[in-house]
Amino acid sequence: MKKNAMYSNLESVEQLFRQYYKVLRVYAFRFVNDWDVAEDIVQDVFVALWNKRTDIEFDGAVKAYLFKAVYNKSLNFLTSKKYTEEESMECFSDQIDALQIQEDNQENSLFMKELRGEIEAFVETLPVQVKKVFILSRSYGLKVKEIAVQLDLSPKTVEKYLTRALLELRTHLKNKGLMSLLFLLCLCSK
């Protein structure tokens, strides 16, 4: 579809909406973990596309533009005041869990190995108790109460250690430029 044809009439934008709405909604959901918010994000992207149809320029495919716009709006939501740190950690935690499942299915194993290696190297830098809690949770799939019993800690302490490890890991991956890779790999696994 040529740029002028795409932006010049409502039918073309409606066609794009019908073609990409469902997949973009799922894509947004993987970031925000809320179907209603994901729906709003996708609708906002298409409204912006229509409103700015004469100003928007890109070199790539329409599909790539739409995914990038949804990605950016999702990240904006995650950093907005509407999104609490607890929800953010839950979403990030789910993506780390998805990384575990995906290891067997990933076609792009080079990226997977790089990310896995970076996470493992980071885990080695954690304090001993935090490291144990993280490994028991993420590698062995134990629940907070099970970890608390096994390590003779209170459940609140286990939660605190997990939150600390995930926050530090997220910061570490951001600093290494690997957060986007994590999101993309999790997207490919579902």
From TrEMBL:
Indicate the segments forming the RNA polymerase sigma factor 70 region 4 type domain, all copies. 117-169
A Pfam family recorded for this sequence: Sigma70_r2
Question: Single Gene Ontology BP term?
Answer: DNA-templated transcription initiation
Keywords for this entry? Answer: Sigma factor, Transcription, Transcription regulation
> RNA polymerase sigma-70 region domain location, by residue?
16-82
Q: Which residues cross the membrane?
A: none
Q: Which SUPFAM superfamilies does its entry note?
A: Sigma2 domain of RNA polymerase sigma factors, Sigma3 and sigma4 domains of RNA polymerase sigma factors
- Single Gene Ontology MF annotation: DNA binding
- Family stated for the protein in its record: Belongs to the sigma-70 factor family. ECF subfamily.
Task: Fetch the NCBIfam families from UniProt.
Answer: Sig70_bacteroi1 (TIGR02985), sigma70-ECF (TIGR02937)
Q: Which PANTHER family match?
A: RNA POLYMERASE ECF-TYPE SIGMA FACTO (PTHR43133), RNA POLYMERASE SIGMA-70 FACTOR ECF SUBFAMILY (PTHR43133:SF46)
This one is known as RNA polymerase sigma-70 factor
This chain's source organism reads Bacteroides fragilis
The lineage, from the top, is:
Bacteria, Pseudomonadati, Bacteroidota, Bacteroidia, Bacteroidales
